[in-house]
Design a protein that fits this description.
The protein is mainly α and about 120 residues long. Strands 1-2 form a two-stranded antiparallel sheet. Strand 1 and strand 2 form a beta hairpin. The radius of gyration is 23 Å and the shape is elongated.
């Protein structure tokens, strides 16, 4: 079981249904019924996904009479993005080195360039 915040975040967003729910909540809060519409699943199944997202701190649930809107809590996603940023930098630098290497003349072409 994921115990640290980053692990809980990645475990929660590992599921495509939960990622779709987060994408929907990025445009504003919604009820379980509204969130369930695009999916071929029961309301209790959607509620289970919401509970996972809530336990990971990715959403919060309000209470307005009988309506319990879910809303995105993006801070945990920002934490995950910060963690991944160092690996993005690694890949950008690696690809830059590859590009530099590929632009350098190779083999016979390299000798031909030096003779000019």
């Amino acid at each position: 079981m994921a115990t640290d915040r980053l692990s809980a975040t990645f475990a929660a967003i590992a599921d495509p249904t939960r990622r779709a729910i987060l994408a929907r909540l990025a445009s504003g809060e919604a009820s379980v019924t509204e969130l369930a519409k695009p999916f071929d699943m029961t309301l209790p199944a959607v509620s289970k996904h919401l509970k996972v997202l809530e336990n990971a701190g990715l959403i919060s649930r309000g209470r307005d009479a009988q309506w319990r809107p879910a809303r995105l809590e993006a801070a945990r996603l920002r934490d995950a993005a910060k963690w991944m940023e160092r690996y993005r930098i690694f890949w950008v630098q690696s690809l830059d080195r590859l590009e530099t290497h590929l632009r350098e003349p190779q083999g016979e072409d390299k000798e031909h360039v030096h003779r000019k």
